[in-house]
């Protein structure tokens, strides 16, 4: 690994930081309080290449590398985690899979619109009865004599589901084949047979709209199959590897914001005649916060570096991505907890953003693979045992 960033990587970090500070941070409290989807801000991110950072320029993206993606995600997440969730889904779960497995026509039709910020994309894998056990899905796509598929079933917890124009859907095409009987499809949400449920009221990342979606005799054309029939589970797992780097980056951004706010607070807040940052117990918390934040950052950059090697013919990065997500998400939860504790009553108040950081951090331990699943992935990769 090269621990120095290139001029191009620093440039996109600066662009992300500027938008985050000038547009996202000032509106974060409003979006958290109301749950309003930040469409205008997301379009601004798209216009500046941040909704398709690793997407080649010929498909409307910035044509950058995974390190650039991490740097940009951290800046946006530090301003508001909900914005970074939408950005992560578009970059990691939507564009990444189509670029890797899609046809030229699919890339031009679906990736360009999302990368440029004109439309919002989504990823539909989870179902009401199947979260971590994705192979237990019940949503079915029955193949017809003319080569089309008729989709029926439900998906739940779909990030950006209430506003997405296009969705990558995973459905069972051959139940007898288990994981090898799952196929990925491109869904246009404006078509007949697609239905959205109510927007979920969530603890955190409230401006990132989430809902259940349902298909009733929705017809998918043969040219809307992503990859090959039966490759859906492989595609999903490959995409989630990349997605975990995005969530690790998000966790770092949340943790950094909480840490920086805490540093300022312990220098200004006084008790017993001195700044509370002078107390040894506070100093111990600060030291641990900094160590966890730096460890998470370096592990996430390592995972991004390994993904770049994989994209150019190198080894897979599943283990590195799982390690990064596990460490970063648990660091974010711990750091925001300590930040709230140090802020005391003010940390518990909505007058300050600390309680929002605390609420937002929790989801990073849950979505795109819980901490428990990350531990299974890591242990199985290390031991070779299933």
From TrEMBL:
Cofactor(s) annotated in UniProt: FAD
Domain Acyl-CoA dehydrogenase/oxidase N-terminal: 6-117
Acyl-CoA oxidase/dehydrogenase middle domain: residues covered: 122-217
Substrates-to-products reaction catalysed: 3-sulfinopropanoyl-CoA + H2O = propanoyl-CoA + sulfite + H(+)
Residues in the signal sequence: none
GO molecular function: acyl-CoA dehydrogenase activity; flavin adenine dinucleotide binding
Coiled-coil segments: none
EC identifiers of the protein: 1.3.8.11, 3.13.1.4
InterPro entries in UniProt: Acyl-CoA_DH_CS (IPR006089), Acyl-CoA_Oxase/DH_mid-dom (IPR006091), Acyl-CoA_Oxase/DH_mid-dom_sf (IPR046373), AcylCo_DH-like_C (IPR036250), AcylCo_DH/oxidase_C (IPR009075), AcylCoA_DH/ox_N (IPR013786), AcylCoA_DH/ox_N_sf (IPR037069), AcylCoA_DH/oxidase_NM_dom_sf (IPR009100)
Keywords: FAD, Flavoprotein, Oxidoreductase
Domain Acyl-CoA dehydrogenase/oxidase C-terminal: 230-381
Top-rank taxon: Bacteria
Alphabetical list of Pfam families matching this protein: Acyl-CoA_dh_1 (PF00441), Acyl-CoA_dh_M (PF02770), Acyl-CoA_dh_N (PF02771)
Protein family according to the UniProt entry: Belongs to the acyl-CoA dehydrogenase family.
PANTHER family xref list: ACYL-COA DEHYDROGENASE, ISOVALERYL-COA DEHYDROGENASE, MITOCHONDRIAL-RELATED
Name of the protein: 3-sulfinopropanoyl-CoA desulfinase
Source organism of this protein record: Cognatilysobacter bugurensis
Organism classification: Bacteria, Pseudomonadati, Pseudomonadota, Gammaproteobacteria, Lysobacterales
Gene designation per UniProt: acdA
